[in-house]
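Quick one, probably user error.
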């Protein structure tokens, strides 16, 4: 095995300006997209919601998840990193 094969990694990263996660349709669409393309890291921008574990678990499939959130201020902003 060459050194290049050992050092090369392929990361799937998603950054999505969702303009609000209040709709269950949007959450289902994002969840399907994450699952279909097997993303490693996801940034959900403009969530416009207070984060909770239930929101994150509705987006990400599986038990092994670490996440961080910057809360929305009123009806603007919000960032979820998974």
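Nope, works fine. Designed sequence:
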């Amino acid at each position: 095995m060459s050194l290049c094969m050992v050092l090369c990694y392929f990361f799937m990263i998603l950054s999505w300006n969702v303009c609000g996660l209040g709709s269950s349709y949007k959450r289902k669409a994002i969840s399907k997209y994450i699952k279909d393309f097997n993303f490693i890291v996801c940034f959900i921008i403009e969530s416009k919601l207070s984060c909770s574990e239930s929101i994150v678990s509705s987006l990400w499939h599986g038990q092994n998840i670490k996440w961080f959130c910057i809360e929305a201020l009123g009806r603007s902003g919000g960032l979820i990193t998974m």
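Confidence is low (pLDDT under 50) at residues 1-7.
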